[in-house]
TrEMBL record:
InterPro entries: D-isomer_DH_CS (IPR029753), D-isomer_DH_NAD-bd (IPR006140), NAD(P)-bd_dom_sf (IPR036291). Residues 107-282 form the D-isomer specific 2-hydroxyacid dehydrogenase NAD-binding domain. It comes from Acidipropionibacterium acidipropionici (strain ATCC 4875 / DSM 20272 / JCM 6432 / NBRC 12425 / NCIMB 8070 / 4) (Propionibacterium acidipropionici). This is Putative phosphoglycerate dehydrogenase. The keyword Kinase does not apply. GO terms for molecular function: NAD binding; oxidoreductase activity, acting on the CH-OH group of donors, NAD or NADP as acceptor. PANTHER family: 2-HACID_DH_C DOMAIN-CONTAINING PROTEIN, D-ISOMER SPECIFIC 2-HYDROXYACID DEHYDROGENASE NAD-BINDING DOMAIN-CONTAINING PROTEIN. Keywords: NAD, Oxidoreductase. Pfam families: 2-Hacid_dh_C.
Length: 324
């Protein structure tokens, strides 16, 4: 780049320590949501350090000068809108950063369910010595909905634990790692064949409410649902109704993503029988912010050297091609 680049960082908490040293190479500035509209007309690069922010759309104008937006998250659904999609602005994400942590988290959730750890803790709290015979994972079946890097890592780890894993994506195909991938349209007929279903698809117009009331009702008797993707992939009301009534096929569910985050203290989801709630933390292991910063810096080096960026999102699809 012949001209010194202006890099704006959207962060309500101030400049992240991990990237503050970049000010010797670029004009680095931090802004809040309130100042984003002005900054979009001045900067070349925008780093959405607050990656769940929805402030880009209301701050956008025809005078925007930004040419590259980096979202340090796996999904970019919360910040895509028509004007941005139709523009020449490049959008990149944090593909590859969360694969192993989320896969381990899913494995932990499956183990918690199969080995009845939650019940054991409750019995311990009440000093109740109650022997049981929990299930084994070996030989049971799992469906991973989403064939991107996180889905692949999850499928591999569940397979290593002895589960027979099938993946589902947009289209039916043979995959060298995953075997036969089921098409989304096959799920109503096929979902009854799985003991565990894991939601990891990107959130798009096609996947919103993918796990509908009808699909939930078609799941195998005694099965377990895990959502570590986006809350909007699932009809949360239908899930709550099913678990509270006890009349559906599900033995329980674990949610790490919700329609509204943070989940309000008064939400009825906190008290749903058989539902494990966690605060969207499946990918956030120790050092995750450092890795996100390193990934951005690597791409910034490419940007400054006029080299192609990595992890470029197809804005019309809403994800990186080949990552579903």
């Amino acid at each position: 780049m012949s001209r010194r680049q202006r890099v704006a960082v959207l962060s309500q908490a101030g400049m992240p320590d991990q990237i503050a040293h970049l000010d010797d190479r670029v004009d680095l500035t931090v802004c809040t949501e309130e100042g984003l509209a002005d900054e979009l007309t001045r900067c070349d690069v925008l780093l959405l350090w607050d990656f769940f922010s929805r402030a880009v759309r209301p701050s956008w104008s025809d005078r925007a000068t930004v040419r590259w937006i980096h979202v340090p998250a796996a999904g970019v659904d919360k910040m895509l809108f028509d004007e941005l999609i139709d523009s020449d602005v490049v959008v990149t994400n944090a593909r590859g950063t969360f694969d192993r942590p989320i896969a381990e988290y899913v494995l932990g959730l499956v183990l918690r369910h199969y080995k009845q750890f939650g019940l054991t803790q409750r019995l311990q709290d009440s000093h109740d010595w109650r022997h049981r015979e929990p299930r084994t994972m070996a030989g049971s079946t799992a469906l991973v909905i989403g064939t991107g890097p996180i889905g692949r890592a999850t499928a591999a780890l569940l397979s290593a634990a002895g589960m027979r894993v099938t993946a589902s994506g947009r289209t039916r195909r043979e995959d060298p790692e995953l075997g036969t991938v089921l098409a989304t349209e096959e799920l109503p007929e096929q979902i009854c064949g799985f003991d565990v279903v894991v939601l990891l698809a990107p959130l798009t117009d096609q996947t919103r409410s993918l796990m509908s009331a009808d699909l939930l009702a078609r799941m195998r008797r005694g099965s377990y649902l895990i959502n570590v993707g986006r809350g909007e992939l699932l009809d949360q009301n239908a899930l709550e109704t099913m678990l509270r009534s006890g009349s559906g096929p599900l033995a329980g569910a674990a949610l790490d993503a919700f329609d509204d985050e943070p989940l309000p203290p008064g939400s009825s989801l906190w008290t749903v029988p058989g539902l494990f709630v966690s605060p969207h933390m499946s990918g956030d292991d120790v050092g995750w912010r450092d890795r996100l910063a390193d990934q951005f810096i690597d791409n910034l080096n490419r940007w400054l050297a006029d080299e192609p960026l990595v992890n470029v999102v197809d804005k019309h699809l809403g994800y990186i091609p080949g990552a579903t």
